[in-house]
User: Fold this.
Amino acid sequence: MGNRIKEFQQKKSPLFVPFITAGDPSPDITVDLAIALQKAGADALELGIPYSDPLADGPVIQRASKRALENDMTLEKAMVLVSDMRAAGLTIPVIIFTYYNLLLQLGEQKFFELAAQHEIDGLLVPDMPFEESKDLQASCSDHDLSLISLAAPTTSEGRLKEIGESAQGFLYCISSLGVTGARTSFASGIDRFLNDARAASSVPVLIGFGLSSREQMQQFEEKCDGFIVGSTIVSKIEELGPDLLREDKQREALQTFSDFLAALVPLKVYS
Assistant:
């Protein structure tokens, strides 16, 4: 496990992990957005790889994937982009969020070579069942990467215990069934699920899928260690996209994005 992930795990909660799509609205702007997120208090970054058939993603992230694919973004190009983020001052962990087919096309060994070269800290493969991930998890450990595991409210107690005990980096707890997207309500039994997850996990427990406001995060702040927020951030990027791509409007649009984050990012509670 890399030093950045260890530092992440030792930070005070609530931890904040935003998701953006590599190449949306352009590769260069993705770097600027990553830096803005770090300045706003992000503790790690999930960098989504655009995919033509994103089964777990709702319409907001599907549209982001379409825009990024139109910019010729690929898994390999996105990993190279992380070096640009590092050169621009990004110091927080970067987790690559990709569907397994893209990883298979690139090749696992090539992925690990690029991850080392471009200072990538973790991997999340949403369409890989836990039971089929053991070999990949071992390979990630061998290459000093964290393979992030997912758990859902429907996960059985025994399976949750197994996932929690082997989790690397952090445990991603899904707040609701279905695809990503902002929600006004969450799965029934969510509080008990989070309590069980924390009891089972040896790493921080973060909740994601549907969180879209600081108020929603406050609802869960005593029951988890942090939050993963994607669709509402990607939606704001979509709204600002035309101005982000205009040289004469870009600085103002990035400031608007930062102002949006200031109202979204959970307030850190320090003793």
